[in-house]
Amino acid sequence: MASSTDRPAAGSGGITADRLAVLIGRDTLHAPLNASLATNIRAMVSDGRLPVGSRLPAERELATALGLSRVTVSTAYRRLREQGWAGAHQGSGTWTRTPDGGRVVAAWVPGVPLEGQLDLSYTAPSGPPEVAEAYATALTMLPRHLPGHGYAPQGLPELRERLAARFTARGLPTSVEQVVVTLGAAGGITAALRALTDPGDRVLVEHPVWPNALDVLGVLRTRAVPVPLDPERTAEFVAALHRAARQTSARAAYLVPDFSNPTGAVLDVEDRRHLAASLQQQDVTVLADETLTDLPLEGQEVPPPLAAFARPGAVVTVGSLSKAVWAGVRTGWVRGEAPFLARVASAMSREHGSLSIVDQLAACALLDGLDDALVRRRAELRTQRDALVAALAARLPEWRVPVPDGGLSLWCHLPPGTSSSLLADAAEPLGLRIATGSRFGTGHAFDDRLRLPFTQPVPVLERAVELLVAARDAAAAGHGRRPAPREAVLLG
Ligand SMILES: Cc1ncc(COP(=O)(O)O)c(C=O)c1O
């Protein structure tokens, strides 16, 4: 039986019997019907079509809508409860959950790669020469700061000014007071989610999703509510977010509006307008992660920030230099309203006091040269993306590989029967490390997907594809092996 904290939020909505019957599709059920119905509902919870925390229809109503006996539905609900996919409490009916309670605590990166091993588990480009130059500039600026105490909990004013000016130039007028500097986007996401939520709150997430966001939500003891995101159907995603917000009384949403990791999805201007209006109306605060915003690869304009479409305070924005420049600089930021930012700053200062002055001075120099550096970064990523797509088409033509027009990764659809976890297990001893598709989902979704970053040089990517071919053959021959449990640490 679920614990009381697993109950649906007060006032959370349910799905009607007729709608659930349409989603299930009577024709897809086969004997034994109760097991088939339970499996069907479970699949919808795990891939987010049926949000975690939704109230299921009364047994009698679903039985009527599907033309089944009530005993069949009742047995299916019991199976779901026994397997941890549903909870029930006197007076509050049956609602959906996941066996881990919606908490996903396994954001992952393997240990140190073995000698000669290719590591495609990160989406993080190498640092350009400008980084060293920026640190040299920072050291020349440092003496001016030495007479002070060296603490700057909200960030150096000159860095905040530059960040505010970039937002303003992108169509979102921003003052220095509306920006704080953070330890990477990761630091900003953690501090912002801590300030936005309480334990037990529902938080909508795009699905697939950057796994560390799920990890943070788990640590904060909130409930991730996955909402399916198909990069080719973003308007449907916005509509599904609206429904999920209504059904679960969600408090917040974590979204990556530009070049989502892993899918590369972008929300267009219309999507942004609808999304902002819908979530605002339902009092859901959005945390918009703009970590990949600077990476359009086809010369296209990226729409203005999501916050430009919402009233002040309804959208909190985080960003970072990690993907545009280099993750080693560890400079990110949060944009929001001043009272909220005061809470973010105090959450951060409890956690790590303040940030390095040298890193922030280097970040100022990097921002001054960012537009030129981005021209080179985008050209390099475009070449690498195209080479990886071409190698996959030549060597693994049975894979479906949508080509994103920005970002850092391909989200590959594996052919029926191919499991990305078996593939990863088979690839590891061959010298290739990859992140399995299921890392990007809640429950058990996406084992038939694989994220491949195009952040490494072309020869590395081409070699990786050869190793994937060998891994596919080894997995098919049953030669994959289960590696030891992996550590729970950051995944880029
Ligand atoms: C969507 C997204 N957000 C945040 C991060 C973390 O960025 P940072 O290195 O600035 O903490 C990543 C890194 O992969 C990411 O893909």
TrEMBL record:
<dbReference type="InterPro" id="IPR036388">
    <property type="entry name" value="WH-like_DNA-bd_sf"/>
</dbReference>
<keyword id="KW-0663">Pyridoxal phosphate</keyword>
<dbReference type="InterPro" id="IPR051446">
    <property type="entry name" value="HTH_trans_reg/aminotransferase"/>
</dbReference>
<comment type="similarity">
    <text>In the C-terminal section; belongs to the class-I pyridoxal-phosphate-dependent aminotransferase family.</text>
</comment>
<keyword id="KW-0238">DNA-binding</keyword>
<dbReference type="Pfam" id="PF00392">
    <property type="entry name" value="GntR"/>
</dbReference>
<keyword id="KW-0805">Transcription regulation</keyword>
<keyword id="KW-0808">Transferase</keyword>
<dbReference type="GO" id="GO:0003677">
    <property type="term" value="F:DNA binding"/>
</dbReference>
<dbReference type="InterPro" id="IPR015421">
    <property type="entry name" value="PyrdxlP-dep_Trfase_major"/>
</dbReference>
<dbReference type="Pfam" id="PF00155">
    <property type="entry name" value="Aminotran_1_2"/>
</dbReference>
<dbReference type="InterPro" id="IPR000524">
    <property type="entry name" value="Tscrpt_reg_HTH_GntR"/>
</dbReference>
<dbReference type="GO" id="GO:0003700">
    <property type="term" value="F:DNA-binding transcription factor activity"/>
</dbReference>
<dbReference type="GO" id="GO:0030170">
    <property type="term" value="F:pyridoxal phosphate binding"/>
</dbReference>
<dbReference type="InterPro" id="IPR015424">
    <property type="entry name" value="PyrdxlP-dep_Trfase"/>
</dbReference>
<protein>
    <submittedName>
        <fullName>Transcriptional regulator, GntR family domain / Aspartate aminotransferase</fullName>
        <ecNumber>2.6.1.1</ecNumber>
    </submittedName>
</protein>
<feature type="domain" description="HTH gntR-type">
    <location>
        <begin position="31"/>
        <end position="99"/>
    </location>
</feature>
<dbReference type="InterPro" id="IPR036390">
    <property type="entry name" value="WH_DNA-bd_sf"/>
</dbReference>
<dbReference type="InterPro" id="IPR004839">
    <property type="entry name" value="Aminotransferase_I/II_large"/>
</dbReference>
<keyword id="KW-0804">Transcription</keyword>
<dbReference type="GO" id="GO:0004069">
    <property type="term" value="F:L-aspartate:2-oxoglutarate aminotransferase activity"/>
</dbReference>
<keyword id="KW-0032">Aminotransferase</keyword>
